[in-house]
């Protein structure tokens, strides 16, 4: 339902400028001129709405998940780009100098002055901006540098577009539309300020410190934080936080990690983190007592207020982190619904919290199935991957159709598992998932 509401609100933001332009009762123009203006207005509205989508607002990402929010963000960016590219070429009224390759002046739109120059600059910058974002991992060695560039670039393009729309736009000279653009632009810039200035200020008052970092499995670390001078933070099992260890509260060096502890284990926050790049490879050398900040909680992958008769947890690799949080919460709250955890890893050395999982598996209501892709000679459990056949074998019983499913792991595993569960008749609303990568 939250997803439908969000889409309705976004459609509202995008359509509102068109409605205001339509009721502005300007003298009629050729239809292509109207379409050109409409394309420009819709593109600008999308661009401004993008700031809210990427602004870490719980009301937005909390209902549909951060990965879905970010994929929507990427899709909207591409749609805005297409509209921006065609926007100047759709105008039928040629003015300016005749160019040798455009004798009919169909492609010529020259209105001297800063307003058009601002539009032209945004028109050139936006494609470059989207292409750089698509090729982000090849172009930027450090994720933090990309975040800086992305935020500043987006603000610059929005500023140029605001100036262009309000000074050169035929409809935007009307006060209603002028103030709508100005209001939306202000909200966009405030959403940036909220992530990079306001939240860090609130984090300063709620500091944490590293109380332990220990090896959880091959190249995987268990990181425990404890609150400094406050009672901790309230969250739901399965959610995630942006974690900043050892940097200033205003630093962009923060990464998202699912919480592995349970809300019922008051105070402390635990994470299970796999070594991957710049930050995660330094975990082993972070000393006890290092200061830390957390931003969150975020995410919708939680079992709170879910009353399905059973719970299926499907995890791959470090995707076990949110499952541990859920299992720990179920254990701490004495929930006796049947639970089945399917946990895939490449080899036995990658299994996290194996003793704890064995302990849960002793219980009548909990079933833990490990599956190893490249087992050693001593492995006597399931082998292979969590493919369609495997999921059908473990979750194909008729009563399991009504269970709640939580999925987290490599993207291919999650897509495959989702498809099989849907084919088995599980309702889409009963499948929760969070991807660790947005690309
Ligand atoms: C919602 C969510 C929950 C996650 N939970 C866990 C978890 O419980 N355990 C775990 O090991 N990993 C988790 N991850 C993945 C984790 O965030 C990345 O592995 C980590 O950020 C890599 O950082 P790095 O500096 O070591 O690597 P880098 O080399 O800097 O980055 C490697 C990749 O990680 C991603 N990444 C890096 N920084 C950020 C950032 N600030 N925001 C978003 N993505 C970033 C990017 O895709 C980047 O290309 C989660 C990711 C998301 C989105």
TrEMBL record:
Sequence ranges assigned to domain FAD-binding FR-type in this UniProt record: 203-304
What organism, scientifically named, is this protein from? Answer: Roseibium polysiphoniae
List the Pfam families hit by this protein, alphabetically: FAD_binding_8, Ferric_reduct, NAD_binding_1
Q: InterPro entries attached here?
A: FAD-bd_8, FAD-bd_FR_type, Fe3_Rdtase_TM_dom, FNR_nucleotide-bd, MRET, OxRdtase_FAD/NAD-bd, Riboflavin_synthase-like_b-brl
Give the membrane topology: Multi-pass membrane protein
Name assigned to this protein: Ferredoxin reductase family protein
Alphabetized PANTHER family for the sequence? 1,2-PHENYLACETYL-COA EPOXIDASE, SUBUNIT E (PTHR47354:SF8), NADH OXIDOREDUCTASE HCR (PTHR47354)
Q: Where in the cell is it found?
A: Membrane
Gene3D superfamilies, from UniProt? Nucleotide-binding domain of ferredoxin-NADP reductase (FNR) module, Translation factors
TM region(s), chain numbering = 35-54, 75-95, 115-134, 146-165, 177-198
For this UniProt record, the keywords arranged alphabetically read as follows:
2Fe-2S, FAD, Flavoprotein, Iron, Iron-sulfur, Membrane, Metal-binding, Oxidoreductase, Transmembrane, Transmembrane helix
